[in-house]
């Protein structure tokens, strides 16, 4: 009994798997430590088998040096695409960080090894809610679909023009900061007005020591108004997912 192996098909699938692994390790919602590394590897392998009909036609097996170069190129492409997606989704985490900063919660800041987030309560809460909404709404399917479509624009071993990703990273960084301010902006304005009101009250009646009430009042306002942001969070996650996929396809 003879068993024949199509080495070119195996090489093409392996190269596609390298791009998948680099993307899955960096890009949300798969980058969280709540998903074991074994599951991430199996997911990357399954996705590489799913895109085999796209990557295998026309693939020509290179020599050993060419294969190593193609392997490194796929690693770079997957990491860049994953970083772009992570950068866009960081807007939600940054919004939570701004709320922690202006609401007085930064004193309880700490590192969450599971979510790989360094922040206080609302930073971690917003990140956790965004990941949960990605899975609940099927947004992760858009992320996977966008990654699969990159093989049409960037064939395996073809590399990528670094000018486009660098420009996209610069644009996405500014977009992330603007999006974070738009998400947390209304609450930040309310907390700023609360500070201004306490300052005016202190000027009018210094004996009241109104600033002693600053932290409790700001914490109370934050806890009252944050649920209003969570009402709009599903729409925000959908918009961020679409922006991330547009960015990835634009680079591709």
Automatic annotation (TrEMBL):
It comes from the Bacteria. GO terms for cellular component: plasma membrane. The keyword Cytoplasm does not apply. Keywords: Cell membrane, Cell projection, Cilium, Flagellum, Membrane, Transmembrane, Transmembrane helix. Belongs to the FliR/MopE/SpaR family. This is Flagellar biosynthetic protein FliR. Its main location: membrane. Pfam families: Bac_export_1. It is found in: Cell membrane. The chain crosses the membrane at residues 12-30, 42-60, 66-89, 125-143, 183-201, 208-233. It comes from Conyzicola lurida. One of its GO terms (biological process) is protein targeting.
């Amino acid at each position: 009994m003879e068993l024949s192996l199509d080495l070119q098909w195996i090489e093409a699938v392996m190269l596609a798997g390298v791009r998948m692994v680099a993307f899955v390790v960096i890009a949300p919602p798969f980058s969280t430590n709540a998903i074991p590394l074994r599951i991430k590897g199996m997911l990357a392998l399954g996705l590489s088998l799913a895109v085999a009909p796209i990557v295998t036609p026309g693939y020509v097996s290179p020599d050993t040096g060419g294969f190593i170069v193609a392997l490194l190129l796929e690693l770079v492409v997957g990491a860049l695409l994953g970083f772009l997606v992570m950068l866009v989704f960081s807007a939600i985490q940054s919004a939570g960080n701004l709320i922690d900063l202006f609401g007085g919660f930064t004193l309880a800041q700490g590192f969450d090894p599971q979510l790989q987030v360094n922040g206080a309560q609302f930073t971690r809460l917003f990140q956790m809610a965004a990941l949960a909404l990605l899975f609940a709404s099927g947004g992760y399917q858009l992320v996977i679909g966008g990654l699969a479509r990159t093989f049409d624009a960037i064939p395996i071993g073809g590399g990528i023009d670094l000018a486009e990703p660098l420009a996209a990273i610069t644009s996405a960084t500014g977009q992330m900061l603007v999006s974070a301010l738009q998400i947390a902006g209304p609450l930040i304005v309310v907390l700023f007005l609360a500070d201004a009101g306490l300052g005016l009250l202190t000027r009018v009646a210094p004996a009241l020591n109104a600033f002693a009430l600053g932290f409790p009042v700001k914490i109370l306002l934050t806890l009252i108004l944050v649920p209003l942001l969570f009402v709009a969070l599903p729409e925000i996650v959908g918009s961020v997912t679409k922006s991330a996929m547009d960015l990835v396809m634009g680079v591709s």
